[in-house]
Amino acid sequence: MKIILRLTLAGILVMMLVIASYTQDTKTTAKVEAKVEIGQINGASFRIDLPVQWNQGLVMYCHGYEVAGRPRSNWDNSQTKALVETFLSRGFAVAQSEYSGQGWAVKEAIEDTESLRRYFASKYGQPKETYVTGHSMGAVITISTIERYPDIYDGAMPMCGPLNPSIVGLKDRVFDMLVTFDYFFPDTIVLPVKLMTDNKLTTTVAEKIRTAITANPEKAEMFAKRYQIATVNELAGVLTFFHEILRELQQRTGGNPFDNRNTIYSGFDDDVAVNRGVKRYSADAKAAEYMRQYYTPTGHISDPVLTIHTTYDPLVLARDVCVYDSTSKISGSQDLFIAKFVVARGHCNISPQQTGMGFDNLLMWVHEHKRPIAGEIP
After folding, report:
1. If you write DSSP's letter for every residue of 74-129 in order, what string do you get?
2. Which residue spans of the chain are classified as CATH 3.40.50.1820?
3. Which of 47, 241, 273, 344 has the fewest CB neighbours in a 10 Å radius?
4. Is it the case that residue 322 has pLDDT exceeding 90?
């Protein structure tokens, strides 16, 4: 009886060792998923991704413009997932807020991103290093964040977004394009002064724009060339999107933020006729002040800022990105700003690999104090 008992115990011991060994092997070979937390702070949904082997670093990601009223799916699309994986694979946690508002929600985004960062630090501990990045309007939020919180962040990587004063950049690119389009193609779009009471973006607006430019392709081609849009086919989509941006801005600010009374237009087939015939508008003071606040870059940075832009972008021109070079020079921080480019067509058409290379450049700059060379990211 004793012998049988001993054999049984010995057998159990062997089996336990085998099971332990097998379990260990399984843990070694199986892919362990990153930890994900989803929640809400002050009406803004958020997502936090923590890698299995966390290096105690944090990347705050700021998404771009969302058309008001559209379904929100920032975390579910493949591009965002690939972007998050770019940072997770380097050991960094990623936190992103969905913001408590849509449209030109720069004000809300700045506040919501900071609230999320504080929440992250309180729950997971103060990171050893923190970076902020974002696409398009998210680049505006990125630059405003690094300027406002220099003691918190170690560096920033704004991508494919206008880094000029918003009241200037949106006036030049959005407002001026719409008012000159109204001159060349009258009665096609809703006039800027009536946009605030108009309904949100509908397919009717896009159809009317498309019909107008199709009926006069030569004029449309001249107009597209003037605004550095490569093809007439892109023109309708750009104008429709800008029409919605201006509508939302007017509703958000309570008036028209832009003034073109002192604008002398050029680059058209007949500049004299354009300047004589284009409608002129004055800005509402409160609306203009809102745009100045959200946001006017100061150039006052104390941490490295590396921006990335495509060589062709129909929405955001390269000059609107590179203007921060002048802003930083005026403030005396030009040694902390670098503009890199990728050879690609389209808005924010920056691959995860190129994003990773840019981030590696930024990390080297912060860790080794080696300023990257401006130029192409292959």
Report:
1. TTTSHHHHHHHHHHHTTTEEEEEE--S--BS-HHHHHHHHHHHHHHHHHHH---SE
2. 35-164+298-376
3. 273
4. yes
Residue 319: strand, helix, or coil: helix
219-226: long-range contacts at Cβ-Cβ below 8 A with a sequence spacing of 24 or more?
Answer: 219/184, 219/185, 222/268, 222/269, 223/180, 223/181, 223/184, 223/268, 226/180, 226/267, 226/268
What span, in angstroms and rounded, lies between the C-alpha atoms of 346 and 306? 20
Label residue 2 by pLDDT band (50, 70, 90).
very low
- pLDDT, residue 195, reads 63
Average pLDDT, the chain: 89
The CATH number of domain 35-164+298-376, selected from 3.40.50.300, 3.90.550.10, 3.30.70.560, 3.40.50.1820: 3.40.50.1820
Chain centroid to CA 331: how far? 24
Strands 44-50 and 35-41: antiparallel
Give a three-class secondary structure readout of 229-269: CCCHHHHHHHHHHHHHHHHHHHHHHCCCCCCCCCCCCCCCC
CB count in 10 Å sphere of residue 34: 17
CB 188 within 8 A of CB 182: yes
User: Residue 51 corresponds to which tokens in the numbers above?
Assistant: 């890698």
Length of the chain, please? 378
**Beta-carbon-side half-sphere exposure of residue 235 (alpha carbons within 13 Å):** 29
Measured CA to CA, the distance from residue 75 to residue 96 in angstroms comes to: 9
What does the pLDDT average to over 252-272?
Answer: 96
